Each structure stands twice: as structure tokens, then as C-alpha cells.
């Protein structure tokens, strides 16, 4: 069925998140206690809540988005391009800019969003952070009352599961087994918080995020048994 989807109608995406504050002690006492409760199951007695704070970015209640990268195909005749762009910086602004993109250019019934593990992570995280920032959730992210077949989301992890719902395959592993150049550069997801707060190098994070977005598109092409993108087809805007 995915072979029948018009590639021009898909918005590929990836997000990068960090803890909401640079250090655990910058949280107020209520948030410190709530984080301690939230992470007790994962930490057990191995780490204190403060020692575990570098992982706070995986929860929308304790993290924030610092980059959203998106990519989309522009196919005209025999010419195929993949355009990649990013929203980064102040969270409220980048969420509003992403919201405007969805509402103005990807709001039709034919439009789909696609990410890797996006249904479990990126999409819920985006929606929750929009609510926290007082931003109206665009229709493409608002799943309330929708039936499963009405949800306009594709997920390369889900497509790879083939019904095996206990299975998880990382983006890096999928790229390896499918013969796609690895999207990972000099950092990985666990280091994004350090790069953001200590190195203050948002450009490095943007590059990392855009590579992941391109990798998701490449995986989707492989699942359709189509030729991978070459460097000349990828345009950063």
C-alpha cells in the first residue's frame, strides 16, 4: 500500500529535545519531587533524581524541543528533489513556525507525517509541548476522537514491525541493514543536552536532526523498493 502514496504528500520529520533546564537544581521544589517520582521506576536505587536528570529530555513534562527538522519531496517529471529545513531556537517560536507549516502547506486530507518512532515519541511530544506553550494543536497532530485509520501518520518503525509490536529497531540499525549511509555524525541523542547547554552549539544539533530526517526518507524509499536519494537531490533550505 505504501507504494501507492504520492511522495509529494509526505512531510518527514524529526525532533531533538533536551531537559527544560540546564541543571536539576534549577527546577523548583515541586518539579524536583515530581521528577523524582516520575523516574523512580527507571532509576531504581542506582541513580538519584539529580544524577538521572540528563535524561529528562525524553519526557515532555520535563523537557523541551530545541529543533524540528522537516523534509519533503518535490518531484516534477524525472527530476526528484528532497528539501530539508529546520526550526530551532526559542521553543514557543519554533513550535509556532512548525504549526504554520502544517496549517498552510500540509493540512489537506492527502497529507501525511512520517518519522521513526514518531507515533510514540515525536508526535505526542510536539502536541504536549504545544499545549504547555499555549499553542493550538494543528489538525494533523490532534488525534482526539479519531479512529486509527483516520490518523494521517506514517512511522518507519511501525512499518518495519510488520505486526510484531514488541519489536524495536533503532534508526541507525535500520539504516545499516538496509544499506543506507548512517545518519549519525559526531553526536547521538544522549549528548544533545550537553551540546545545547554546555557547548551552546545549536548548529551541530540542527545538522544532526536534519541527517535523521533524511535517513527516515531514505528508509521509506527502501521500503518502497525505490532508489535512494543521492547528495545532489538533497537541498537544504
UniProtKB/TrEMBL annotation:
The record's section on InterPro entries has: 3'-5'_exonuclease_PolB-like, RNaseH-like_sf, RNaseH_sf
GO molecular function list:
exonuclease activity
Every copy of the Predicted 3'-5' exonuclease PolB-like domain together lies at: 62-225
Q: What keywords appear on the UniProt entry? A: Exonuclease, Hydrolase, Nuclease
Q: Which domain of life does the protein's organism represent?
A: Bacteria
Q: What is this protein called?
A: 3'-5' exonuclease
Species assigned in the record: Flavobacterium pokkalii
